Please model this.
Amino acid sequence: EQFNDDKVLNTAPFEALRKGAAGFLVNLMNPALKWFHLEPSNWTVDGVKDDGQNSTSEYIERLENFIFNVMSKSGSYRAFKKGFEHLLSMGFCCIIVHEDKRFVAKAECIPIGTYALGVGSDGKVNRVCRRFAMTAEELVKEFGGGEEGLNALPQDVIQNWKSGNNGKDGNYIVENLIEPNEPTWACGTMEELDYGLSKKYAYRSIFWLRGRTSSGNSQQTGNYSGILAVKGFRFNPIIAPRLDCELGSIYGRGRGHDALNACRALQALMFDEIEISSNRAEPPLLASNDLREE
Model:
């Protein structure tokens, strides 16, 4: 849902939020500087002690430059900037690091209100379930690779794609669950769910269409199994910092919660000031009481 700013008369809170997020970005990960340094746990490689001259130092330096270029060219800093805005205002944010064919890796900041977080036994975020809209063309491009992948999509998606219908009727809600690649059992049974993903991946990412199952109308589902795709990550792709997160709570408390009443008072004062200025410019008509009955 798009934000309605009709009642926002003073944008000072938004400017403060953007400046605060920019301060986080510049101080933690300044795009203009090499803000990180890699260092191996053991400087001995193949029994040779590093003295600053051998290939170990050169390799680490090349790797640092490579990571720095990937983050700069992929636009990941914009995702972190938006994430810092969410963190300051709401107390939490969620950024997912995807593999990218063009830039190797790319960070994506998920909009507030479109996802739910989950934590493990250690209290760290290790699950996220989100939803987003895709057109039929985007579904085919993302999940319909090859004839086998295309046939696995629902029939109405394929028909809308072939007819070029990407309007209102061509929008679909995709849901995505990212979680550890651990054994999962079906609800009410002891049958382990097999997603066909190799155990070499530490995390799995499951995509499906909202409200669609393989047992629906055959004209709509076709060969659709209920799952669009299952992808794997060798690492935890979820970056979800939280502020003032209490024990037993998943989400944090941001500075926006503390400033909410002050922001409302600011808008009310701004409304009164505009109204007073308007009355000064065009004052109400003054007349004698004797004219009331005439």
The first helix runs from residue 12 to 29. The beta strands are 44-45, 48-49, 95-100, 104-109, 115-119, 125-135, 171-180, 203-209, 229-233, 238-239. The mean pLDDT is 83.
